[in-house]
Write a structure and sequence with these properties.
Structural class: alpha+beta
Oligomer: single chain
Distance between the termini: 92 Å
Radius of gyration: 25 Å
Shape: elongated
Order of helices and strands: HEEEEEEEEEEEH
Bound molecules: dinuclear copper ion
Number of strands: 11
Number of helices: 2
Length: 189
């Protein structure tokens, strides 16, 4: 074997070893990302938006589930708590939500114009709001108090001023507030 041939096979071996190392790094990154998805999915119950439900943006305010008088917190005959809200540039409606503590609360929300989103305090309540689609998720709030609910998708010049509040009440307070009221919110009237 000539000297240059020997050199060639050596540098080839070095290249293969280097590529193998990089492949292991890439493989480790992939394993880490999948592990993060599994941990957040199982541990925090973080989920991508579930069932795809559509809604007509043009008639949103006139008819159906998202008319103004139907927004806010509803307690069903079976005791299930549902919060309905609409996002628009640059506010949520209602601007103040009321929910009971330690109770599954189902959110149903949509947007009338741009893509918005919200997160509630330090909870796992976090969703995007896309015009034409209904975002829905169910979560429980672990402690009472008032949490901030900012829009977290850049939606235009007023984005940073777009937020609502969420009042988490004890079960007794919530029951008292919701008695005889069809749609509950904490918006000052
Ligand atoms: Cu709405 Cu950002």
């Amino acid at each position: 074997m000539s000297a240059s041939g020997h050199e060639g096979s050596r540098s080839e071996a070095v290249a293969i070893a280097a590529e193998r190392r990089w492949a292991m790094v890439v493989g480790a990154v992939l394993v880490l990302l999948v592990a993060m998805m599994v941990v957040t999915g199982l541990h925090w119950a973080a989920m991508p938006p579930s069932r795809v439900e559509t809604v007509d943006v043009k008639t949103l305010h006139i008819a159906g589930e998202f008319i103004e008088s139907n927004l806010g917190t509803a307690v069903g005959a079976d005791g299930k708590v549902t919060v309905r809200l609409v996002a628009q540039q640059y506010s949520f409606q209602p601007q103040c939500l009321v929910v009971p503590v330690d109770t599954p609360v189902t959110f149903r929300a949509t947007s009338t114009d741009a893509i918005h989103g919200f997160i509630i305090g330090a909870t796992n309540a976090n969703t995007m709001l896309v015009p034409g689609f209904v975002s829905t998720f169910t979560t429980s709030f672990r402690k009472t108090g008032t949490a901030l609910m900012p829009c977290h998708e850049y939606c235009g010049t007023g984005h940073e001023a777009m937020w609502a509040h969420v009042q988490v009440l004890s079960a007794a307070d919530f029951l008292a507030r919701s008695r005889g009221v069809e749609r509950l919110s904490c918006v000052a009237r």
